[in-house]
Amino acid sequence: MFWKFDLHTSSHLEALLDKEDVTLAELMDEEDVLQECKAQNRRLLQFLSQDQCMQELVRLITTEPPTGVEEVKRFKYSNIACELLTCDVGDINDKLGNEEPLLESLYAFLEQPSPLNPLLASFFSKTIGNLITRKTEQVLSFLRRKEGFLSLVLKHIDTSAMMDVLLRLISCVEPPPLRLETLTWLNEEKLAQRLIELIHPERDEERQSNASQTLCDIIRLSRDQANQLQELSQPDPLLAVLESQESVEQLLQNMFSREGTDSCIVNGIQVLLTLLEIRRNRYSRLVASLLYTSSSSHAVIAQELCRLNTMDLLLELFFKYTWNNFLHLQVELCVAAILRPCAHEMRLQPGLGSQEKSHLDLFQQCHLVPRILDAWEENDKIQSAGGMRRGYMGHLTRIANTVVHNLEKGPVHAQIGSLIAELPEDCRGRWETFVDQTLSETNRKNTIDLIGTGHLRPSSDDDMESPFPKELTLQQTFSDYQIQQMTANFVDQFGFNDEDEPKTQIVLSFHLFYAEDEFNDRFVCLQANTAVFEACSKERIQPFDDEEEEDIWEEKEMSFATQTKSRKRSEPQHFFFEEFI
Asked: Exposed, middle or buried by CB within 10 Å (0-12, 13-18, 19+), for 548?
Protein backbone atom coordinates (compact mmCIF):
# COMPACT_ATOMS: atom_id res chain seq x y z
CA MET A 1 0.00 0.00 0.00
CA PHE A 2 1.36 3.42 -0.93
CA TRP A 3 0.58 6.55 1.03
CA LYS A 4 -0.39 9.58 -0.96
CA PHE A 5 1.05 12.94 -0.03
CA ASP A 6 -0.09 16.28 -1.39
CA LEU A 7 3.21 18.21 -1.41
CA HIS A 8 1.53 21.29 -2.90
CA THR A 9 -1.01 21.88 -0.15
CA SER A 10 -0.91 25.51 0.92
CA SER A 11 -0.40 26.19 4.61
CA HIS A 12 -2.68 28.41 6.59
CA LEU A 13 0.11 31.01 6.53
CA GLU A 14 -0.09 31.14 2.73
CA ALA A 15 -3.81 31.61 2.97
CA LEU A 16 -3.32 34.54 5.32
CA LEU A 17 -0.83 36.14 2.92
CA ASP A 18 -3.47 35.96 0.21
CA LYS A 19 -5.69 38.28 2.26
CA GLU A 20 -5.44 41.94 1.33
CA ASP A 21 -6.00 43.17 4.87
CA VAL A 22 -3.81 40.65 6.72
CA THR A 23 -2.12 42.10 9.80
CA LEU A 24 1.25 41.45 11.38
CA ALA A 25 -0.44 40.16 14.53
CA GLU A 26 -2.34 37.55 12.54
CA LEU A 27 0.86 36.24 11.00
CA MET A 28 2.63 36.20 14.37
CA ASP A 29 -0.17 34.07 15.77
CA GLU A 30 0.79 31.31 13.34
CA GLU A 31 2.97 28.63 14.87
CA ASP A 32 5.11 28.18 11.76
CA VAL A 33 5.79 31.87 11.08
CA LEU A 34 9.35 31.69 12.40
CA GLN A 35 10.08 28.46 10.58
CA GLU A 36 8.80 29.91 7.31
CA CYS A 37 10.86 33.03 7.84
CA LYS A 38 14.05 31.02 8.35
CA ALA A 39 13.14 28.98 5.25
CA GLN A 40 13.07 32.34 3.45
CA ASN A 41 9.47 32.24 2.32
CA ARG A 42 9.57 35.04 -0.25
CA ARG A 43 6.01 36.27 0.23
CA LEU A 44 6.43 36.33 4.03
CA LEU A 45 9.76 38.17 3.83
CA GLN A 46 8.31 40.74 1.44
CA PHE A 47 5.49 41.38 3.90
CA LEU A 48 7.77 41.60 6.96
CA SER A 49 10.23 43.89 5.18
CA GLN A 50 7.65 46.60 4.67
CA ASP A 51 8.40 49.81 6.55
CA GLN A 52 5.32 49.67 8.79
CA CYS A 53 5.94 46.01 9.70
CA MET A 54 9.60 46.60 10.56
CA GLN A 55 8.70 49.61 12.68
CA GLU A 56 6.09 47.54 14.51
CA LEU A 57 8.59 44.72 15.15
CA VAL A 58 11.10 47.20 16.61
CA ARG A 59 8.36 48.81 18.70
CA LEU A 60 7.38 45.42 20.14
CA ILE A 61 10.89 44.71 21.45
CA THR A 62 11.51 48.21 22.86
CA THR A 63 8.17 49.19 24.40
CA GLU A 64 6.45 47.83 27.50
CA PRO A 65 3.35 45.86 26.45
CA PRO A 66 0.04 46.75 28.12
CA THR A 67 -0.66 45.28 31.54
CA GLY A 68 -3.71 43.33 32.59
CA VAL A 69 -2.83 39.99 31.02
CA GLU A 70 -0.71 37.04 32.13
CA GLU A 71 3.02 37.69 32.06
CA VAL A 72 3.64 34.85 29.61
CA LYS A 73 1.05 36.13 27.14
CA ARG A 74 2.00 39.74 27.77
CA PHE A 75 5.43 39.37 26.18
CA LYS A 76 4.38 36.84 23.55
CA TYR A 77 4.53 39.23 20.59
CA SER A 78 7.71 40.87 21.90
CA ASN A 79 9.43 37.49 21.99
CA ILE A 80 8.25 36.51 18.50
CA ALA A 81 9.29 39.93 17.14
CA CYS A 82 12.79 39.47 18.56
CA GLU A 83 13.08 36.02 16.99
CA LEU A 84 11.98 37.35 13.61
CA LEU A 85 14.43 40.25 13.74
CA THR A 86 17.35 37.98 14.70
CA CYS A 87 16.59 34.90 12.57
CA ASP A 88 19.62 35.84 10.45
CA VAL A 89 17.79 36.33 7.15
CA GLY A 90 19.47 38.68 4.72
CA ASP A 91 16.37 40.66 3.78
CA ILE A 92 15.55 41.53 7.39
CA ASN A 93 19.19 42.25 8.32
CA ASP A 94 19.58 44.56 5.33
CA LYS A 95 16.36 46.39 6.06
CA LEU A 96 17.09 46.90 9.74
CA GLY A 97 20.78 47.70 9.33
CA ASN A 98 20.51 50.08 6.40
CA GLU A 99 17.45 52.09 7.38
CA GLU A 100 18.34 55.02 9.66
CA PRO A 101 14.77 55.48 11.05
CA LEU A 102 14.70 51.85 12.19
CA LEU A 103 18.08 52.18 13.90
CA GLU A 104 16.86 55.38 15.59
CA SER A 105 13.80 53.56 16.92
CA LEU A 106 15.97 50.76 18.21
CA TYR A 107 18.46 53.17 19.78
CA ALA A 108 15.63 55.03 21.56
CA PHE A 109 15.35 52.09 23.94
CA LEU A 110 18.62 53.17 25.59
CA GLU A 111 17.19 56.63 26.24
CA GLN A 112 14.50 55.27 28.54
CA PRO A 113 14.88 55.94 32.28
CA SER A 114 16.35 53.30 34.56
CA PRO A 115 15.71 50.60 35.42
CA LEU A 116 15.09 48.92 32.09
CA ASN A 117 12.77 45.96 31.79
CA PRO A 118 15.25 43.06 31.85
CA LEU A 119 13.30 41.02 29.31
CA LEU A 120 13.04 43.88 26.83
CA ALA A 121 16.70 44.66 27.47
CA SER A 122 17.59 41.11 26.47
CA PHE A 123 15.55 41.50 23.26
CA PHE A 124 17.34 44.76 22.49
CA SER A 125 20.76 43.25 23.25
CA LYS A 126 20.12 40.24 21.03
CA THR A 127 18.90 42.40 18.14
CA ILE A 128 21.69 44.99 18.27
CA GLY A 129 24.24 42.20 18.78
CA ASN A 130 23.04 40.44 15.64
CA LEU A 131 23.34 43.70 13.69
CA ILE A 132 26.87 44.29 15.00
CA THR A 133 27.80 40.86 13.64
CA ARG A 134 25.93 41.00 10.31
CA LYS A 135 25.84 44.71 9.43
CA THR A 136 29.04 45.71 11.17
CA GLU A 137 30.14 48.80 9.28
CA GLN A 138 26.67 50.35 9.07
CA VAL A 139 25.85 49.83 12.75
CA LEU A 140 29.26 50.97 14.01
CA SER A 141 29.05 54.09 11.90
CA PHE A 142 25.62 54.82 13.37
CA LEU A 143 26.71 54.21 16.98
CA ARG A 144 29.87 56.27 16.68
CA ARG A 145 27.79 59.25 15.61
CA LYS A 146 25.86 58.97 18.87
CA GLU A 147 27.95 60.88 21.38
CA GLY A 148 26.07 59.56 24.38
CA PHE A 149 25.94 55.91 23.34
CA LEU A 150 28.53 54.60 25.80
CA SER A 151 27.16 56.75 28.62
CA LEU A 152 23.69 55.29 28.11
CA VAL A 153 24.98 51.71 28.06
CA LEU A 154 26.92 52.28 31.29
CA LYS A 155 23.91 54.02 32.81
CA HIS A 156 21.98 50.77 32.37
CA ILE A 157 24.86 48.43 33.28
CA ASP A 158 22.87 47.22 36.28
CA THR A 159 20.88 45.29 33.65
CA SER A 160 23.06 42.34 32.65
CA ALA A 161 21.98 42.47 29.00
CA MET A 162 23.97 45.70 28.60
CA MET A 163 27.17 43.77 29.29
CA ASP A 164 26.49 41.69 26.18
CA VAL A 165 26.25 44.82 24.05
CA LEU A 166 29.74 45.92 25.10
CA LEU A 167 31.21 42.45 24.64
CA ARG A 168 29.71 42.20 21.14
CA LEU A 169 31.53 45.38 20.18
CA ILE A 170 34.81 43.84 21.35
CA SER A 171 34.47 40.25 20.16
CA CYS A 172 32.22 40.24 17.08
CA VAL A 173 33.72 42.93 14.88
CA GLU A 174 35.57 41.68 11.79
CA PRO A 175 37.98 42.05 10.02
CA PRO A 176 40.89 42.82 12.41
CA PRO A 177 41.52 46.35 11.07
CA LEU A 178 37.91 47.30 11.77
CA ARG A 179 38.12 45.67 15.21
CA LEU A 180 41.22 47.69 16.03
CA GLU A 181 39.40 50.83 14.92
CA THR A 182 36.47 49.93 17.19
CA LEU A 183 38.75 49.22 20.16
CA THR A 184 40.49 52.55 19.60
CA TRP A 185 37.11 54.30 19.63
CA LEU A 186 36.07 52.56 22.87
CA ASN A 187 39.41 53.46 24.41
CA GLU A 188 39.03 57.10 23.39
CA GLU A 189 35.65 57.02 25.12
CA LYS A 190 37.52 55.80 28.25
CA LEU A 191 35.49 52.62 28.56
CA ALA A 192 38.02 50.88 30.84
CA GLN A 193 38.35 53.83 33.23
CA ARG A 194 34.59 54.31 33.43
CA LEU A 195 33.99 50.65 34.21
CA ILE A 196 36.63 50.77 36.95
CA GLU A 197 34.93 53.83 38.40
CA LEU A 198 31.71 51.82 38.69
CA ILE A 199 33.45 49.47 41.13
CA HIS A 200 33.09 51.95 43.94
CA PRO A 201 31.50 51.77 47.41
CA GLU A 202 28.99 54.46 46.44
CA ARG A 203 27.58 52.33 43.60
CA ASP A 204 24.92 49.67 44.14
CA GLU A 205 26.08 46.06 44.31
CA GLU A 206 24.45 44.97 41.03
CA ARG A 207 26.17 47.75 39.12
CA GLN A 208 29.54 46.90 40.72
CA SER A 209 29.15 43.20 39.99
CA ASN A 210 28.25 43.71 36.32
CA ALA A 211 31.05 46.21 35.82
CA SER A 212 33.53 43.76 37.36
CA GLN A 213 32.29 40.90 35.19
CA THR A 214 32.48 43.07 32.08
CA LEU A 215 36.09 44.02 32.83
CA CYS A 216 37.01 40.36 33.40
CA ASP A 217 35.39 39.33 30.11
CA ILE A 218 37.09 42.17 28.24
CA ILE A 219 40.50 41.11 29.57
CA ARG A 220 40.01 37.46 28.62
CA LEU A 221 38.54 38.23 25.19
CA SER A 222 41.27 40.74 24.41
CA ARG A 223 44.02 38.30 25.35
CA ASP A 224 42.41 35.55 23.29
CA GLN A 225 42.25 37.86 20.27
CA ALA A 226 45.72 39.32 20.74
CA ASN A 227 47.26 37.09 18.06
CA GLN A 228 44.98 38.53 15.38
CA LEU A 229 45.90 42.10 16.23
CA GLN A 230 49.59 41.18 16.22
CA GLU A 231 49.26 40.75 12.46
CA LEU A 232 48.65 44.50 12.32
CA SER A 233 51.63 45.23 14.58
CA GLN A 234 49.27 47.12 16.87
CA PRO A 235 48.59 46.38 20.57
CA ASP A 236 45.06 46.23 21.89
CA PRO A 237 44.55 49.78 23.24
CA LEU A 238 41.78 48.73 25.62
CA LEU A 239 43.82 45.91 27.12
CA ALA A 240 46.88 48.14 27.41
CA VAL A 241 44.91 50.60 29.55
CA LEU A 242 43.47 47.86 31.75
CA GLU A 243 46.93 46.42 32.37
CA SER A 244 48.48 49.79 33.14
CA GLN A 245 49.63 50.74 36.61
CA GLU A 246 47.31 53.76 36.64
CA SER A 247 44.21 51.60 36.15
CA VAL A 248 45.18 49.12 38.87
CA GLU A 249 45.99 51.94 41.29
CA GLN A 250 42.58 53.51 40.64
CA LEU A 251 40.90 50.17 41.27
CA LEU A 252 42.81 49.71 44.53
CA GLN A 253 41.90 53.22 45.68
CA ASN A 254 38.22 52.48 45.08
CA MET A 255 38.48 49.17 46.94
CA PHE A 256 40.26 50.56 50.00
CA SER A 257 38.59 53.93 50.37
CA ARG A 258 37.36 54.85 53.82
CA GLU A 259 33.80 53.84 53.03
CA GLY A 260 34.96 50.59 51.38
CA THR A 261 32.45 47.73 51.32
CA ASP A 262 32.77 43.97 51.05
CA SER A 263 31.09 44.04 47.65
CA CYS A 264 33.58 46.56 46.28
CA ILE A 265 36.56 44.57 47.58
CA VAL A 266 35.31 41.23 46.25
CA ASN A 267 34.47 42.62 42.79
CA GLY A 268 37.79 44.43 42.62
CA ILE A 269 39.67 41.26 43.52
CA GLN A 270 37.94 39.42 40.69
CA VAL A 271 39.37 41.93 38.23
CA LEU A 272 42.85 41.66 39.77
CA LEU A 273 42.75 37.88 39.62
CA THR A 274 41.75 38.04 35.96
CA LEU A 275 44.68 40.34 35.24
CA LEU A 276 46.94 37.81 36.96
CA GLU A 277 45.54 34.86 35.04
CA ILE A 278 47.99 32.85 32.97
CA ARG A 279 45.75 30.95 30.59
CA ARG A 280 43.24 29.87 33.22
CA ASN A 281 45.77 29.58 35.98
CA ARG A 282 44.61 27.05 38.59
CA TYR A 283 45.50 29.30 41.54
CA SER A 284 42.17 31.18 41.97
CA ARG A 285 43.41 33.38 45.03
CA LEU A 286 45.36 36.64 44.97
CA VAL A 287 48.54 36.02 47.02
CA ALA A 288 49.12 32.59 45.49
CA SER A 289 48.61 34.13 42.04
CA LEU A 290 51.25 36.75 42.78
CA LEU A 291 53.77 34.13 43.83
CA TYR A 292 53.16 32.01 40.73
CA THR A 293 52.89 34.81 38.19
CA SER A 294 56.47 35.77 37.36
CA SER A 295 59.43 33.61 38.27
CA SER A 296 61.82 36.50 37.66
CA SER A 297 60.15 38.53 40.42
CA HIS A 298 59.38 35.68 42.79
CA ALA A 299 61.95 36.55 45.46
CA VAL A 300 60.98 40.22 45.59
CA ILE A 301 57.28 39.33 45.88
CA ALA A 302 58.01 36.84 48.66
CA GLN A 303 60.03 39.46 50.53
CA GLU A 304 57.24 42.02 50.20
CA LEU A 305 54.70 39.53 51.55
CA CYS A 306 56.89 38.94 54.58
CA ARG A 307 57.55 42.66 55.05
CA LEU A 308 53.81 43.30 55.15
CA ASN A 309 53.41 40.43 57.64
CA THR A 310 51.14 38.69 55.13
CA MET A 311 52.51 35.18 55.61
CA ASP A 312 52.14 35.39 59.39
CA LEU A 313 48.50 36.44 58.95
CA LEU A 314 47.86 33.68 56.42
CA LEU A 315 49.22 31.04 58.78
CA GLU A 316 47.07 32.46 61.56
CA LEU A 317 43.99 32.19 59.32
CA PHE A 318 45.07 28.68 58.28
CA PHE A 319 44.75 27.37 61.83
CA LYS A 320 41.85 29.61 62.83
CA TYR A 321 39.41 28.48 60.15
CA THR A 322 39.67 24.76 60.68
CA TRP A 323 37.27 23.69 57.93
CA ASN A 324 38.07 26.18 55.18
CA ASN A 325 39.99 23.88 52.84
CA PHE A 326 39.91 26.51 50.09
CA LEU A 327 41.98 28.77 52.31
CA HIS A 328 44.22 25.89 53.42
CA LEU A 329 45.17 25.08 49.84
CA GLN A 330 46.15 28.67 49.02
CA VAL A 331 48.29 29.01 52.18
CA GLU A 332 49.95 25.68 51.39
CA LEU A 333 50.82 26.90 47.89
CA CYS A 334 52.25 30.14 49.29
CA VAL A 335 54.47 28.35 51.80
CA ALA A 336 55.69 25.91 49.15
CA ALA A 337 56.45 28.72 46.70
CA ILE A 338 58.60 30.56 49.27
CA LEU A 339 60.45 27.42 50.34
CA ARG A 340 61.18 26.26 46.83
CA PRO A 341 62.38 28.95 44.38
CA CYS A 342 62.27 27.88 40.76
CA ALA A 343 65.37 27.07 38.72
CA HIS A 344 64.85 30.14 36.52
CA GLU A 345 65.07 32.39 39.55
CA MET A 346 68.17 30.59 40.81
CA ARG A 347 69.90 31.46 37.54
CA LEU A 348 68.76 35.08 37.65
CA GLN A 349 69.57 35.64 41.35
CA PRO A 350 72.45 33.34 42.34
CA GLY A 351 72.94 35.23 45.61
CA LEU A 352 69.35 34.74 46.72
CA GLY A 353 69.60 37.58 49.20
CA SER A 354 65.91 38.44 49.21
CA GLN A 355 65.01 34.76 49.11
CA GLU A 356 67.02 34.16 52.28
CA LYS A 357 65.15 37.02 53.91
CA SER A 358 61.79 35.43 53.09
CA HIS A 359 62.99 32.09 54.47
CA LEU A 360 64.22 33.84 57.60
CA ASP A 361 60.83 35.49 58.12
CA LEU A 362 58.94 32.28 57.47
CA PHE A 363 60.86 30.35 60.13
CA GLN A 364 61.61 33.12 62.65
CA GLN A 365 58.84 35.72 62.43
CA CYS A 366 56.10 33.32 61.33
CA HIS A 367 57.31 30.44 63.57
CA LEU A 368 56.41 27.85 60.94
CA VAL A 369 57.96 24.82 62.68
CA PRO A 370 56.46 25.46 66.17
CA ARG A 371 53.08 26.10 64.58
CA ILE A 372 53.22 22.76 62.75
CA LEU A 373 54.21 20.92 65.92
CA ASP A 374 51.64 22.63 68.16
CA ALA A 375 48.79 22.11 65.69
CA TRP A 376 49.70 18.45 65.23
CA GLU A 377 49.86 17.77 68.97
CA GLU A 378 46.57 19.59 69.53
CA ASN A 379 44.91 17.47 66.86
CA ASP A 380 46.25 14.27 68.43
CA LYS A 381 44.74 15.29 71.78
CA ILE A 382 41.37 16.02 70.18
CA GLN A 383 41.31 12.71 68.33
CA SER A 384 42.45 10.71 71.36
CA ALA A 385 39.51 12.20 73.27
CA GLY A 386 37.10 11.01 70.57
CA GLY A 387 36.93 14.27 68.65
CA MET A 388 37.01 14.88 64.90
CA ARG A 389 40.26 15.21 63.01
CA ARG A 390 41.03 18.81 62.11
CA GLY A 391 40.15 19.75 58.55
CA TYR A 392 43.57 21.18 57.74
CA MET A 393 45.59 18.08 58.69
CA GLY A 394 46.01 16.84 55.13
CA HIS A 395 47.37 20.22 54.03
CA LEU A 396 49.51 20.44 57.16
CA THR A 397 51.04 17.06 56.29
CA ARG A 398 51.94 18.34 52.84
CA ILE A 399 53.44 21.53 54.28
CA ALA A 400 55.55 19.49 56.72
CA ASN A 401 56.70 17.22 53.88
CA THR A 402 57.58 20.28 51.82
CA VAL A 403 59.78 21.58 54.63
CA VAL A 404 61.49 18.19 55.00
CA HIS A 405 61.98 17.80 51.26
CA ASN A 406 63.55 21.24 50.84
CA LEU A 407 65.66 20.69 53.97
CA GLU A 408 67.13 17.49 52.53
CA LYS A 409 67.52 18.15 48.83
CA GLY A 410 65.99 21.49 47.88
CA PRO A 411 67.92 24.25 46.05
CA VAL A 412 68.20 26.25 49.29
CA HIS A 413 68.59 23.33 51.70
CA ALA A 414 71.65 24.88 53.34
CA GLN A 415 69.78 28.06 54.31
CA ILE A 416 66.79 26.09 55.63
CA GLY A 417 69.10 23.75 57.53
CA SER A 418 70.74 26.73 59.26
CA LEU A 419 67.34 28.08 60.26
CA ILE A 420 66.28 24.71 61.69
CA ALA A 421 69.54 24.52 63.61
CA GLU A 422 68.86 27.93 65.17
CA LEU A 423 65.58 26.73 66.72
CA PRO A 424 65.50 26.34 70.53
CA GLU A 425 66.84 22.98 71.62
CA ASP A 426 63.50 21.64 72.85
CA CYS A 427 61.73 22.74 69.63
CA ARG A 428 64.49 21.24 67.48
CA GLY A 429 64.21 17.97 69.38
CA ARG A 430 60.44 17.90 68.97
CA TRP A 431 60.86 18.54 65.25
CA GLU A 432 63.39 15.74 64.78
CA THR A 433 61.15 13.30 66.67
CA PHE A 434 58.15 14.46 64.67
CA VAL A 435 59.93 13.94 61.32
CA ASP A 436 61.47 10.57 62.23
CA GLN A 437 58.40 9.07 63.87
CA THR A 438 55.09 10.91 63.51
CA LEU A 439 55.46 12.26 59.98
CA SER A 440 57.14 9.10 58.75
CA GLU A 441 54.30 6.97 60.14
CA THR A 442 51.71 9.28 58.60
CA ASN A 443 53.42 9.01 55.22
CA ARG A 444 53.49 5.22 55.56
CA LYS A 445 49.76 5.13 56.25
CA ASN A 446 49.13 7.39 53.32
CA THR A 447 50.99 4.99 51.03
CA ILE A 448 48.69 2.38 49.56
CA ASP A 449 49.25 -0.64 47.33
CA LEU A 450 47.47 -0.97 44.03
CA ILE A 451 47.54 -4.39 42.43
CA GLY A 452 47.94 -4.40 38.69
CA THR A 453 48.32 -0.67 38.15
CA GLY A 454 51.21 -0.31 35.81
CA HIS A 455 50.13 3.23 35.06
CA LEU A 456 51.62 4.81 38.15
CA ARG A 457 55.14 5.77 39.03
CA PRO A 458 56.53 3.15 41.46
CA SER A 459 57.84 4.49 44.71
CA SER A 460 61.38 4.21 45.96
CA ASP A 461 63.22 5.47 48.96
CA ASP A 462 63.69 8.79 47.20
CA ASP A 463 59.98 9.12 46.52
CA MET A 464 58.61 8.56 49.99
CA GLU A 465 58.18 12.21 50.74
CA SER A 466 55.01 14.03 49.72
CA PRO A 467 54.63 14.32 45.94
CA PHE A 468 53.80 18.01 46.36
CA PRO A 469 57.34 19.37 45.78
CA LYS A 470 57.65 17.44 42.52
CA GLU A 471 54.14 18.42 41.56
CA LEU A 472 55.03 22.00 42.39
CA THR A 473 58.11 21.74 40.17
CA LEU A 474 55.95 20.65 37.24
CA GLN A 475 53.46 23.41 37.99
CA GLN A 476 56.23 25.98 38.15
CA THR A 477 57.74 24.75 34.88
CA PHE A 478 54.34 24.93 33.24
CA SER A 479 53.83 28.36 34.75
CA ASP A 480 57.17 29.52 33.33
CA TYR A 481 55.98 28.42 29.92
CA GLN A 482 52.52 29.94 30.27
CA ILE A 483 53.86 33.30 31.39
CA GLN A 484 54.85 33.86 27.78
CA GLN A 485 51.13 33.99 26.96
CA MET A 486 50.48 36.88 29.32
CA THR A 487 50.83 40.35 27.91
CA ALA A 488 54.39 41.50 28.52
CA ASN A 489 53.20 44.97 29.43
CA PHE A 490 51.27 43.66 32.43
CA VAL A 491 54.14 41.46 33.63
CA ASP A 492 56.43 44.48 33.49
CA GLN A 493 53.93 46.62 35.40
CA PHE A 494 53.67 44.07 38.18
CA GLY A 495 57.20 42.72 38.25
CA PHE A 496 57.65 44.17 41.75
CA ASN A 497 61.10 45.39 40.88
CA ASP A 498 60.95 48.44 43.11
CA GLU A 499 59.45 49.65 46.37
CA ASP A 500 56.39 51.23 44.79
CA GLU A 501 53.90 51.12 47.63
CA PRO A 502 50.71 51.06 45.51
CA LYS A 503 51.91 47.81 43.96
CA THR A 504 52.59 46.12 47.27
CA GLN A 505 49.29 47.34 48.64
CA ILE A 506 47.61 44.79 46.40
CA VAL A 507 48.23 42.04 48.96
CA LEU A 508 46.07 43.77 51.52
CA SER A 509 42.97 42.76 49.62
CA PHE A 510 43.69 39.14 50.42
CA HIS A 511 43.63 39.96 54.15
CA LEU A 512 40.24 41.62 53.98
CA PHE A 513 38.84 39.01 51.62
CA TYR A 514 39.50 36.17 54.02
CA ALA A 515 39.14 38.01 57.31
CA GLU A 516 35.40 38.37 56.67
CA ASP A 517 35.05 34.83 55.33
CA GLU A 518 33.84 33.07 58.50
CA PHE A 519 33.03 29.43 57.91
CA ASN A 520 30.71 28.26 60.72
CA ASP A 521 29.49 25.13 58.97
CA ARG A 522 31.84 22.25 59.47
CA PHE A 523 32.73 20.46 56.31
CA VAL A 524 35.68 18.61 54.96
CA CYS A 525 36.80 19.05 51.41
CA LEU A 526 37.78 15.59 50.26
CA GLN A 527 40.74 15.58 47.93
CA ALA A 528 42.40 12.55 46.44
CA ASN A 529 45.42 12.04 44.33
CA THR A 530 44.30 12.23 40.70
CA ALA A 531 46.50 9.32 39.84
CA VAL A 532 44.57 7.08 42.25
CA PHE A 533 41.29 7.80 40.53
CA GLU A 534 42.71 7.30 37.05
CA ALA A 535 44.43 4.09 38.04
CA CYS A 536 41.31 2.64 39.66
CA SER A 537 39.23 3.62 36.64
CA LYS A 538 41.66 1.97 34.22
CA GLU A 539 41.81 -1.10 36.45
CA ARG A 540 38.04 -1.56 36.29
CA ILE A 541 37.72 -0.81 32.56
CA GLN A 542 39.70 -3.51 30.80
CA PRO A 543 40.51 -2.86 27.12
CA PHE A 544 39.55 -5.34 24.44
CA ASP A 545 42.25 -7.68 23.20
CA ASP A 546 43.94 -6.54 20.03
CA GLU A 547 43.95 -10.05 18.60
CA GLU A 548 42.32 -10.67 15.26
CA GLU A 549 38.63 -11.50 15.40
CA GLU A 550 37.88 -15.19 15.19
CA ASP A 551 36.01 -16.47 12.12
CA ILE A 552 33.03 -18.37 13.54
CA TRP A 553 32.35 -20.08 10.18
CA GLU A 554 35.85 -21.51 9.82
CA GLU A 555 35.96 -25.33 10.00
CA LYS A 556 37.98 -26.47 12.97
CA GLU A 557 38.94 -29.75 14.50
CA MET A 558 36.69 -30.73 17.38
CA SER A 559 38.45 -30.80 20.72
CA PHE A 560 37.16 -31.39 24.21
CA ALA A 561 40.20 -29.94 25.86
CA THR A 562 39.71 -26.58 27.41
CA GLN A 563 42.58 -24.19 27.15
CA THR A 564 43.01 -21.26 29.45
CA LYS A 565 45.04 -18.20 28.94
CA SER A 566 47.30 -17.17 31.73
CA ARG A 567 47.07 -13.62 32.72
CA LYS A 568 50.13 -11.99 34.09
CA ARG A 569 49.66 -10.00 37.20
CA SER A 570 51.78 -6.95 37.54
CA GLU A 571 53.76 -6.47 40.66
CA PRO A 572 52.29 -4.21 43.38
CA GLN A 573 53.10 -0.56 42.81
CA HIS A 574 53.38 2.04 45.56
CA PHE A 575 52.41 5.65 45.25
CA PHE A 576 51.32 8.52 47.43
CA PHE A 577 47.73 9.09 48.46
CA GLU A 578 47.09 12.22 50.54
CA GLU A 579 44.48 11.63 53.23
CA PHE A 580 42.13 14.48 54.07
CA ILE A 581 39.73 12.99 56.61
From this structure: exposed
